[in-house]
């Protein structure tokens, strides 16, 4: 499939060929949901941790004798029913939230979300982003390119978030630095592009090198 190629000035610079399997894949919402939830689960860290009665300090002796005091029998002050005692059935950091999904499923889901962005006209391919590391130059380039996005409103909110996919070459480091201070713009390397990353941004801007890198990655 031929995709329009733009330059940094926002004008048409020709076309670039992308396989239909990448930008015209059939929708599969169930697969996208499965891969997205798997990726988010694998990022989850079990920070919450409670101590049970064997972990808390103290409680080495019996508080009082078993019989004859008129009080209920207790064997330790670290019992969960005591103040300062251990927690019962609380969260522990040893819990794992990891899930697995096949590599082919991840690639298919990524193709689905890329195809959806392309079908909505929210995927632009630019020949290169020759930026100098300054936010001002990045703002100039985005102002020239964003009018090609349908229904795009140039404001810094969630509806105007743009994900810029870079090829990963040394020259792209300057582009990343130029875009780093823009709160509504995110950057990612083509080799790291994933389903949740695309879903988090309504608009997608890719360099030509990044598109070729994604194609090579999907064809393996």
Helix and strand arrangement:
Blueprint: E1 2-6, E2 12-17, H1 20-23, H2 29-43, H3 103-119, E3 123-126, H4 135-145, E4 162-166, H5 172-179, E5 185-189, H6 195-199, E6 203-207, H7 208-219
Parallel strand pairs: 1-3, 3-6, 4-5, 4-6
Antiparallel strand pairs: 1-2
Helix pairs in contact: 2-3, 4-5
Report on this structure.
By secondary structure, this protein is α/β, with parallel strands linked by helices. The chain folds into 2 domains: 2-44 and 101-219, Ribosomal protein L4/L1 (Ribosomal Protein L4, Chain: A); 49-96, no CATH class. It contains 7 helices and 6 strands; from the N terminus they run E-E-H-H-H-E-H-E-H-E-H-E-H. The chain has helices at residues 20-23, 29-43, 103-119, 135-145, 172-179, 195-199, 208-219, and strands at residues 2-6, 12-17, 123-126, 162-166, 185-189, 203-207. Strand 4, helix 5 and strand 5 (185-189) form a beta-alpha-beta unit. Helix 2 packs across helix 3 and helix 4 (135-145) packs across helix 5 (172-179). The longest helix has 17 residues, at 103-119. It is elongated and about 95 Å long. The model has no long low-confidence stretch (mean pLDDT 92).
């Amino acid at each position: 499939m031929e995709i329009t190629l733009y330059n940094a000035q926002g004008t048409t610079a020709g076309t670039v060929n992308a396989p239909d399997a990448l930008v015209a894949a059939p929708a599969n919402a169930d697969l996208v949901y499965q891969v997205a939830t798997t990726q988010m689960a694998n990022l989850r860290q079990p920070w919450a941790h409670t101590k049970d009665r064997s972990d808390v300090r103290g409680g080495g002796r019996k508080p009082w004798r078993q019989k004859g005091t008129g009080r209920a029998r207790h064997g330790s002050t670290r019992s969960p029913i005591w103040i300062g005692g251990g927690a019962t059935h609380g969260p522990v950091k040893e819990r794992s939230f990891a899930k697995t999904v096949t590599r082919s499923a991840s690639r298919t889901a990524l193709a689905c979300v890329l195809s959806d962005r392309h079908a909505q006209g929210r995927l632009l391919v630019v020949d290169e982003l020759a930026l100098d590391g300054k936010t001002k130059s990045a703002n100039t380039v985005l102002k020239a390119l964003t009018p090609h996005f349908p229904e795009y409103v140039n404001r810094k909110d969630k509806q105007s978030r743009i994900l810029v996919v870079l090829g990963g070459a040394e020259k792209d480091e300057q582009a990343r630095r130029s875009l780093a201070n823009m709160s509504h713009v995110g950057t990612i390397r083509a080799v790291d592009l994933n389903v949740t990353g695309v879903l988090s941004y309504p608009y997608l801007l890719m360099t030509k090198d990044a598109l070729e890198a994604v194609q090579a990655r999907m064809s393996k």
